[in-house]
Write a structure and sequence with these properties.
heterodimer; A: alpha/beta; Rossmann fold; 6-stranded mixed beta sheet; 36% helix; 26% strand; globular; B: alpha/beta; abc type-2 transporter like fold; 15 helices; 4 strands
Chain lengths: 247, 368
């Protein structure tokens, strides 16, 4: 069965002066899949992701996200995606419910709907008693779970997660990936970058970026077969070794 | 959408440990201290008289100088060199030398010479000191007419009657207070927006906002409106303090003051937000804002009249929103000017407000 393509990228390039951060990458992501976007530090993952989210303008190349052109219709894209940046970027001086309310409001949700969904969310996360906690006093694991929940609160078509589990303990990482699967089950396409190779195994498909180019793309099983490796760890090590860019 | 953004801005403002206090403390400090510190009345000019004459008339003159509150008679000597040395050591600002034969000349010819040496390192003090002394000697000459003069005085005496308009007691504080209100509003509504967006950049929170479909206009409006309210609040604090401490109430309409402040706050906030949008660190934003604020204060007519500046400086002052605001506030407070008198100032401020705020919206980039 042919599945709907939600991200389509052709020859996407971003240059900063003489430095080519993203070098003519092309790929497709289909609806509902968990797409792992791997690469060493400085390989260009975040830059590529920022172009897809309409935060950064491509130097050349084309692409569509959720059916909208990334060079022209980036504000329309923003209505249909969620984004969680590498650096925690909710408001630390707002309470848990206030952060949820702010972003839900920005996406155009109504007060009553926000209140109802906030209750549901906090209940589901077993987080109701932290409702009035100031975000700055939450532990990192909870901050990340909250940031993810906020990024999909408005039911976007696609969610972009930039190293969502960086610095998080293994138990919370596990919980986090359960949340990712739940979101994917609801039909949200997940585009995720990570440095943890066990997480790469959880993805439906993975791409590996080296020096701004995509050197490998496929399901974890395909990649392991192609590179005669036992794990994604080995696949990654083999490819990253070729990188010329220093960290 | 704007509702949610405003909620956020207000919560963040009131939760800040320092900002809400600043909005009260700052007007208090400026209104209580500055009118006394910025006075241009010069008193206690240290004076040394070198009296070579030692006659009744010259002693009278010395006494007249000594009894004036403007002059502080430090010493009477008969050596000019000694007096000059005292001036070099900074112990005297003014030397009056009465030559020998002063009384004699005055009685015989109706005119006599005085030598006055003034330390003009501080120009204002020097110029004012000279003016005071001239006033004093003229008065002295009127009181003690020379016999030679009185015989020849056939021409009628010309008297000048001075009426001080709008500030009858020539109270310098009354001139400064409305201007200082402008400074309070300018600093609060200029600096707070200038560090606001750039702080969101430093914390990284702007990234999450930029990836939402929030419109640039709503985002900037949500930044402007709180400062508007804060600025008007600070103004009201200033006006109450001016009334309590200096007994100064506006001669013109309060609505006129509010209207002007609304325009002025909008101008300053717009400028602050542009700087914030263009800066990448708080330091950068603060320094750029400081640069403009210093120019605005020095070239607004608050401390020195704009009309006595050279043409090129007046041209710079013509694009200084603070100049229009100081003129307007002084006019409304002291003269009771109304919108008919001040429409030019209002138009100037309104156009700057519109231009700067459109620029603020344009300079906010959601994608780069």
């Amino acid at each position: 069965m042919e599945r709907e393509i939600v991200i389509h990228v052709e020859e996407l390039t971003k240059q900063f002066g003489n430095f080519t951060a993203v070098d003519h990458i092309s790929f497709d992501v289909v609806k509902g899949e968990v797409f792992g976007f791997l690469g060493a530090n400085g390989a260009g993952k975040t830059t590529a992701m920022r172009m897809l989210c309409g935060l950064s303008r491509p130097t050349s190349g084309t692409g569509t996200v959720a059916g909208y052109d990334i060079t022209r219709q980036y504000e329309a894209i923003k209505k249909n995606i969620g984004y969680m940046s590498q650096k925690f970027s909710l408001y630390e001086d707002l309470k848990v419910w206030e952060n949820i309310r702010l972003y839900a409001g920005i996406y155009g949700m109504k007060d009553t709907e926000i209140a109802r969904k906030t209750d549901e969310l906090l209940e589901r996360l077993n987080f109701a008693r932290e409702r009035n906690t100031m975000v700055k006093s939450l532990p990192l694991g909870w901050k990340q779970k909250l940031a993810f929940s906020v990024s999909i609160f408005h039911d976007p078509a696609i969610v972009f997660l930039d190293e969502p589990t960086g610095g998080v303990d293994p138990y919370t990482r596990r919980q986090f990936w359960e949340m990712i699967y739940e979101a994917a089950d609801r039909g949200i396409t997940v585009f995720v970058t990570t440095h943890y190779m066990d997480e790469a195994e959880y993805c439906d498909r993975v791409s590996i970026m080296v020096d701004g180019r995509i050197d490998a793309l496929g399901t974890p099983r395909e990649l392991k077969e192609r590179f005669c490796a036992r794990s994604m760890e080995e696949v990654f090590q083999g490819l990253a070794r070729k990188a010329s860019r220093a960290d | 959408m704007l509702k949610f953004l405003l909620e956020k801005e207000f919560k963040q403002f009131f939760r800040h440990q320092f900002m809400p206090k600043l909005v009260v403390l700052f007007p208090l400090m400026i209104m209580v201290l500055m009118p006394w510190a910025t006075t241009l009345d010069i008193k206690d000019i240290d004076t040394i008289v070198v009296n070579h004459d030692r006659t009744g008339l010259s002693d009278d003159l010395v006494e007249t100088v000594g009894s004036s509150t403007y002059f502080n008679l430090k010493d009477i000597t008969d050596s000019y060199d000694e007096a000059l040395r005292a001036m070099e050591f900074g112990e005297a600002d003014l030397i009056v030398e009465i030559p020998a034969g002063f009384e004699n000349d005055y009685v015989e010819t109706g005119a006599a010479d005085l030598l006055v040496a003034i330390n003009t390192v501080n120009t204002t003090k020097g110029v004012l000191g000279r003016a005071y002394l001239q006033m004093l000697t003229a008065e002295f000459a009127g009181r003690e007419p020379s016999p030679a003069q009185s015989q020849t005085m056939l021409t009628p005496k010309l008297e000048v009657l001075v009426t001080n308009m709008y500030n009858p007691l020539l109270d310098y504080k009354h001139t400064m207070v409305p201007g200082l209100m402008v400074v309070v509003v300018m600093l609060l509504c200029g600096f707070m927006p200038a560090v606001n967006i750039v702080q969101e950049k430093e914390l990284g929170t702007i990234e999450q906002i930029n990836v939402t479909p929030v419109s640039k206009m709503s985002f900037i409006l949500a930044k402007i409106i709180p400062f508007w309210i804060i600025g008007i609040f600070a103004l009201v604090v200033c006006m109450l303090l001016a009334w309590c401490i200096y007994g100064l109430v506006p001669a013109g309409s309060i609505w006129c003051i509010l209207l002007f402040n609304c325009l002025f706050i909008l101008t300053m906030t717009g400028m602050g937000l542009i700087i914030s949008n263009q800066s990448s660190t708080m330091q950068q934003a603060t320094f750029v804002m400081l640069f403009f604020v210093i120019i605005f204060i020095m070239m607004c007519g608050l401390l020195t009249p704009v009309k006595s500046m050279p043409d090129w400086a007046q041209a710079i002052a013509a694009v200084n929103p603070t100049k229009y605001m100081v003129d307007a506030m002084r006019g409304i407070y002291l003269k009771g000017s109304n919108m008919t008198d001040l429409w030019q100032e209002a138009v100037a401020l309104a156009s700057m407000a519109v231009i700067l705020n459109i620029w603020a919206i344009i300079s906010y980039h959601k994608n780069s």
